[in-house]
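agent> Task received from the user: take the single chain below, predict its 3D structure, and emit structure tokens. No templates, no multimer pairing.
agent> Plan: (1) validate residues, (2) run structure prediction, (3) serialize to tokens, (4) report one or two observations.
agent> Step 1 OK, no nonstandard residues flagged.
tool_call: predict_structure(input=
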Amino acid sequence: MKAFLVNGAVPLRDPCGFGRVDVSRSVAAAWFADDPEAAVGTGEVRRYEFDVEPVRLDVTPVWTDAPSSPGVGGLVNELYLQLRTPGGTVLDGDERGFGEAVDNVQRIRVQAPERGTYTVLVWGVSVVLAPPASPEGADPRQPFALVASNGRLRQLS
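)
tool_result: status=success, residues=157
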């Protein structure tokens, strides 16, 4: 739900968070995935490819982070969103550069995308703890939900 709501949020004049929730834009998202089998570990990447029309494009991953140590705060499991345009430009989904995610909600918005095939990359930068309800003794892997507003995504890896 959170991925849908953030993906359809409308920016405010005063940049505050992801903006104002717009339910009609949120439920109009073209694609959603939250397959637990797509969870990532440290150093892994999930790739999705999709063909985009020249209308607004939003891509939003959200994940429930593992609890941090008391008094420490910050992300425990760092994922990172990137979007590669048909021309090869790579856009980052966090306010910091690659590998330094500060939020478990990220979004890339392209107001006037070029027509063509885009690639969404969700990186497992640092996944150190399994989230709650993970099988005992399993390697840490972080599941995520991914929403896109334009096109139909195909998981490549």
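agent> Step 4: summary for the user.
The beta strands are 31-33, 45-52, 57-62, 78-84, 90-92, 108-110, 116-126, 145-148, 154-155.
agent> Done.
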